[in-house]
From TrEMBL:
CDD domains named among the record's database cross-references: MAR (cd08177)
Keywords: NAD, Oxidoreductase
Domain Fe-containing alcohol dehydrogenase-like C-terminal positions: 169-346
Oxidoreductase keyword on record: yes
Enzyme Commission no: 1.3.1.32
Domain Alcohol dehydrogenase iron-type/glycerol dehydrogenase GldA per the UniProt entry, residue ranges: 17-155
UniProt family annotation: Belongs to the iron-containing alcohol dehydrogenase family.
Protein name: Maleylacetate reductase
Gene3D superfamilies according to UniProt: 3.40.50.1970, Dehydroquinate synthase-like - alpha domain
Length: 354
């Protein structure tokens, strides 16, 4: 375990209800009733839309099946209008980060509560963080109104989650926990929660393709990682992924590629975080980034930004975008160093320290 923060800290933790059980999707009607919701808008992809509609029954007044990645502002505005026209008093999001993110964009302006049923390990369902993309730039913020009031974790929904999607999604969750471990406002509580998330996710990752219990374990880890992220400040890793998201790169895959490189970049300035990750991987702390990169290679997960569609001539703009606004990070955030990090991530090279 890392050294806990000093005795002086401020810890914020939102109130929320979490249900974790096989078949939790079937609790949607009871959980919306519990919140007093009678006119619900559902955001659910084609795979789960029918069952969601059946469970909600007469409570459902309008539905969206095509949530788009990174929440384009055009879709956010259209769905806000759709929900307002239907006089929806609540939102149900059944899906991954795109579905939950779209629900958050609607709640941000309409102020109606969300019940979330995640079908990936994104962790967005546990946070007050929202994001909306416009003209190639992804803008993010925090607002309590977008945090789902109730989260239903249904491990049975992950039984057919393809490994090619499940593995990057788990790396996405892992990134939340890693950044919480070196956040400037980390607390004893966030260290414990994030550390447990790291151990659960890394322990589950090699078995995701074949072991249902590993998928359930990763889901528990994703819950914890989202909770840790919600109580801490995001740093270089998330800033990089938000800039890349504005360019349309796959969110989970970008997290998978970038995380080992950022961990190596920050390892010297945040040895306690590196130690937690490395220990879970059976390696010394200084090799945390390398070990995580090797795990991604072993699992045939994405390891090169160029494979995600990022042009090499965009790297300079990405580096400048990362430095466009100040934010906390354990190691100094300098354009030359960030550009070198991006070069390694673009080529799929071994992660290097600052």
């Amino acid at each position: 375990m890392p050294d806990l923060p000093k005795d002086v800290f401020v810890h914020e933790q939102r109130a929320g209800r979490v249900v974790f059980r096989d078949g939790a999707l079937d609790d949607l009607a009871a959980e919306t009733d519990r919140l007093g919701l009678t006119r619900v808008a559902a955001i659910a992809g084609p795979r789960h839309a029918g069952r969601t509609a059946d469970v909600l029954s007469s409570r459902l007044v309008t539905a969206v099946e095509d949530a788009r990645m990174h929440v384009p502002v055009e879709q956010a505005e259209a769905v806000r209008a759709q929900c307002a026209d239907a006089e929806a008093d609540g939102l149900v999001a059944v899906g991954g980060g795109s579905a939950v993110g779209l629900a958050k964009a609607v709640a941000l302006t309409l102020g109606i509560p969300i019940v979330a049923v995640p079908t990936t390990y994104s962790g967005s369902e546990m946070t007050r963080v929202w994001g909306i993309s416009r003209d190639g730039v992804k803008r993010t913020g925090r607002d309590p109104v977008v945090a789902p009031r109730t989260v239903l974790y249904d491990p049975a929904l992950f039984a057919t989650f393809p490994a090619v999607l499940a593995v990057p999604s788990a790396f996405n969750a892992l990134a939340h926990a890693v950044e919480a471990l070196y956040a400037p406002d980390r607390t004893p509580m966030t260290d414990l929660v994030a550390g447990e998330a790291v151990r659960r996710i890394i322990g589950a990752l090699p078995r995701l393709a074949t072991d249902p219990e590993a998928r359930s374990e990763a889901l528990r880890g994703a819950w914890l990682s989202g909770a840790a992220l919600d109580s801490t400040t995001m740093s270089l890793h998330h800033k990089l992924c938000h800039v890349l998201g504005g360019l349309g790169l796959s969110h989970a895959s970008a997290h998978t590629v970038v995380l080992p490189h950022v961990l190596a970049y920050n390892a010297g300035a945040a040895p306690q975080a590196a130690d937690v990750v490395a220990t879970a991987l059976g390696r010394p702390g200084a090799e945390a980034g390398l070990a995580l990169h090797e795990l991604a290679v072993t699992m045939a997960a994405p390891t090169r930004l160029r494979d995600l569609g990022l042009r090499h001539d965009a790297l300079d703009d990405v580096a400048r975008g990362v430095l466009a606004s100040p934010y906390a990070n354990p190691a100094p955030v300098e354009e030359t160093a960030v550009r070198a990090l991006l070069e390694r991530a673009w080529r799929g090279s071994v992660p290097g320290s600052l």
